[in-house]
Amino acid sequence: MSLTDAFSLTGRVIVVTGASSGLGAATARQVAALGADVVLAARRLDRLEGVAQEVRDTGRRALTVATDVSVQEQCAALVEAAVAEFGAVHGLVNNAGIGTAAPATREAPEEWRRVLDINLSGAYWCAQAFGRVAPRDSAIVNISSVLGLHPFPVPQAGYAASKAGLLGMTRDLAMQWGSRKGIRVNAIAPGLIPSEMADEYPKEFQDVVAATTALGRLGEQEEIASAVAFLLSGASSYITGATLVVDGGLTFH
Fold it and tell me: What are the helix (H) ranges across the chain?
């Protein structure tokens, strides 16, 4: 296999959740540029259509599916729709997520449950449906966060717990499905990346985070999407159960 072939996603069908904006949309564009057909999932179907058109502009096919990943039945229906449209699925990017920044003494039960239902349980329901039908040599990439590894000076217990839970789930599924199913399961732990969620932080906080990284800046969505595409491709064929930290050197010191 040539190096170009190793990174190619030609002939693959990739499901991306949370694909209506931000990192999900950037990932959809990246995998399409590498040759994949893309199944785009999010609650906001109207915003998915714009991303789908960007995928089609690369010459690849796109399918949009309105999906609330916190509902197990909708995750199963998402994968069923992907197989019905394209015949198979080869990759899953569990990107759908929300965040809170409530002090632990004041966070409401419904806020806590909503974060875990989407960020952690939603990823599990999608992985479960995917794992039932994916052929060998398929891959899952779970989008975690550096907050699953290290705390920030912002109260985010629910979000941090959900992202740390994703890392444990990643390792377990990698062990369950490695030799038996031939499915690799890895995680990405991004640093602070400009997005709708990051925009909730004050600019002063974002500036401090940028100055704290070894590279002296925040990352770009496309830089995370490239790492995701690598873990979906044959170039990472001997990597599973791993967490790839993509944070510009924010957390290594």
Answer: 3-7, 22-33, 45-57, 72-86, 109-116, 122-133, 157-181, 203-212, 221-232
Per-position DSSP letters for 161-195, written without gaps between them? HHHHHHHHHHHHHHHHHHHHH-EEEEEEEE---SS
Closest CA to 170 of 73, 116, 239, 223: 239
* Residue 92, token pair as written in the block: 């899953």
Q: Which of 124, 159, 201, 238 is catalytic?
A: 159
Q: What is the tens place of the pLDDT at every residue in 92-131?
A: 999 999 988 788 999 899 999 999 999 999 999 999 999 9
Q: Return d(Cα 196, Cα 198) in angstroms, integer.
A: 6
Nearest to 163 by CA among 148, 173, 153: 148
Question: Is 238 labeled as catalytic in the residue annotation?
Answer: no
Closest by CA to 198, choosing from 210, 187, 188, 214, is 210
For 19, phi and psi rounded to 5 degrees? -90, 5
What's the pLDDT score for residue 156? 86
Report the Cα–Cα distance between both ends of the chain, in Å, rounded.
37
pTM, two decimal places: 0.95
